[in-house]
Specification:
alpha+beta
């Protein structure tokens, strides 16, 4: 499934030809759908950052200690 992400953060499901919410995308992934998220303007692959966003906005993110998250940020350098 290919999802186009627009600058206004809207997600467009190209299979169903409609805009979807991040929650709807999450449900499709949970049901086993493989997704690729691309920037609608540039064509850049945004799949990894979108999946990371889903994880960090989920209840599971509360299981990650603050110190661990801070280390991840520091590792970017």
């Amino acid at each position: 499934m290919i999802v186009k992400k627009y600058s206004n953060r809207r997600l467009y499901d190209t299979d169903d030809s409609r805009y979807i919410t991040l929650d709807e995308l999450t449900e499709k992934i949970k049901r086993g759908t493989d997704v690729q998220v691309i920037d609608a303007k540039s064509g850049d692959d945004l799949t990894q950052s979108t999946l990371t966003q889903i994880i960090l906005e989920s209840k599971a993110a509360k299981l990650l200690p603050t110190q661990f998250l801070a280390r991840l940020i520091r590792m970017q350098d």
